[in-house]
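W.,

You were right to be curious about this one. When I first looked at the sequence I had no strong expectations either way, so I just let the prediction run and decided to look at it fresh. Below is the sequence, 217 residues in total, followed by the output.
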Amino acid sequence: MDFSYLIDLFLHLDKNLALVANQWGVWIYALLFAIIFVETGLVVMPFLPGDSLLFVAGAIAAVGGLDLFALMALLTTAAVTGDALNYSIGRKIGNRVFSWENSRWFNRNAFDKAHAFYEKYGPITIVLGRFMPFIRTFAPFVAGVAHMRYSVFVFYNVIGGIVWVCSLTSLGFFIGDHPWVKSNFSLVALAMIVIPGLPALWIFMKEVFKKLSHRTK
């Protein structure tokens, strides 16, 4: 068995999903559930292609390859339970995480960004972070470290999971099969990474300019 091929297939499943869906049949639902659950549930897996994967899954549903409502229900469950696991891990580890250094398995920079965003905006980070790669994976972990009240976390977690999964699969369902989208998928995937992060960038730049203006007074 060619394990390098399997790894490449797994890491680029967004581009290979139609092929895998055709080969795996109904088992593709289990694979998609596992990937979304792992990406949201483990801080060591922020590189998985969650956004583009949801988009492509919706596009395949548009041509009858998958059931859209089954996707929404299953992957929302994966996203919510994944975040719940991530929160629990963060709560268990607690403040010890602040002594961790950057490594192959822990992206310190992404953690610091998520922590700063959480410090500024609180629980809404759980919802907004869904649309920001890396912050999506670290937001529930940071909430656990900060000991956010669990009932509050569950509320924002469920809302965020529903909005994230349903919006991206619906977008893929309605425009994913368009010829231009299919022929320029790399650009579409890049846009799906950059555009959701623009509000966060705008907020960050406002804070920078605010601090600079205070210093000049």
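Here's what jumped out at me. Residues 102 and 108 are 5 Å apart (CA to CA). And, maybe more interesting for your project: The chain has a mean pLDDT of 76.

Coffee later to discuss?

I.
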